[in-house]
Amino acid sequence: MHQAFYRKWRPQIFDDVYGQEHITSVLRYEAEHGAFSHAYLFCGSRGTGKTTCAKILAKVINCEHPVGGNPCGKCEACRLIDSGAATDILEMDAASNNGVENIRDIRDEVAYAPSALKYRVYIIDEVHMLSTSAFNALLKTLEEPPEHVVFILATTELQKLPATIISRCQRFDFRRITTENLMKRLTYIAQMEKLELDVDAARQLSKLAQGGMRDAISLLELCAGSNRKITTEVVNETVGIAGRDSMFKTVEAIAKSDYNTLFAQIDEIVRSSKDIAVFWQDLISIYRDMLVVKTTSDAMSYLDLTDHETKQMTAVAALFSKETLLYHCKLLEDALFSMQKANAVKRIVAELSLVRMCDPSLDTSNEAILARLSKLEDRVGAGISERETAPVAEKPEPKPAGNVLSETQKEKQTESAAVPEKRSLYPIRQWMEIVERVTVRNPMAAAFLKNTQAFTLADGKILLRFGDEFARDTALRNGGGEALRGAISTVLRRDLPEGSLLTEVKAVRTANTLDEIIEATDGENN
Questions:
Q1: Structural fold of domain 179-239
Q2: Is CATH 3.40.190.10 the classification given to domain 5-174?
Q3: What is the rounded CA–CA span in Å between residue 222 and residue 210?
């Protein structure tokens, strides 16, 4: 009878367990010195070696002649366990045996000595599925079992276990196995099974397994059924996924709003009978990688990519802003949730979502607006070049008695300067925050600053554009200029020395900031 690869190639000693050296080294040490605990807790994601290590531990505990902390495999106890005839090794699946009566049976049995081995070992898999009553029944026995009894508990959901159970066990956290370790094991199994396995295919299978050895081996066996050399094309065809190049093509089409390519991509998936949800999950994975590239300085530490894939990922990530990537991720997540609903037409959900990703103006959500603003900010990032006429001539104000300059004249004398005709202006996006700070100290000045335009010049100076002289004079008198300078320094987080606050009078159109940015960028493009 055919035996599945993951069972056929299950490790029989700790040395053959891949990617869990931080656990197997401790277990080997305990075996060498005979210092076994009365209860073990193995927790981690599926397929990472919990049950395998539990079986090896149960064997080495009863082995008559351990070799380097591993079971010898030759003594009577090892042969008895390998044959499955050892009645003192009891495996229980808590998913289907989770009642209190099952634990009571164990509690009654532990009083008896083992029949053939040195220790009676109870392996309880998926222990988090036990009922509350079953946990309570297990508690006392687990805390002080007889000397000839060892408990090994395994779970994929540690958070569901009571703290009282966890505290009574020696806990081991199984990590996801790295792609390199998975590739090594798959290559070894392929050689032993006389399969032709391409290196890129081994890498792809390892990535699809997401850190689980059992999943990786099962996928290898699935691809081996094609009875030909296992390449990336064979993996894509067998598993039913789109290739990496195809995913990059889709992302580039989204960036270019190439609707023909996107609809053709979905149509190809449907015609080839592939699952759109699987394609969608791969697309989410690509966006996650792009977000890592966009937001971290050492992205390769968090990505499992080849050099060629790294160059491709960096290139496509440059097509989007962080805001756009976050907006797209939300659409992808919502679409995947919709696809999982009953009676959902996955093709329609996918196509509608891709159209919305190409054109944020179709969406009025906050994420869509941020994505649109980020594009405009990128376009004006280098500054808005404009050619201005000379500032409006200012009428001299009469001097007060005693030839003493008025406060307004002093403000204008210190804060105003000649402004060149050709300038690069950078709109201050935090202007309303600055005005709010001025409101606390000088509400009158703040009232006239709300309709004022503020820009940063290329030399770092600040230009304030008022609609008329009255608004300028009122905003800067009675300490308004001082309050304004302090607010700007606080918000922009830099000192603003004397003479760096410039003013001009020019008719200000009533328009919101978004309209101004759009008009400015359109003018540059034209």
A1: Helicase, Ruva Protein; domain 3 (1.10.8)
A2: no
A3: 17
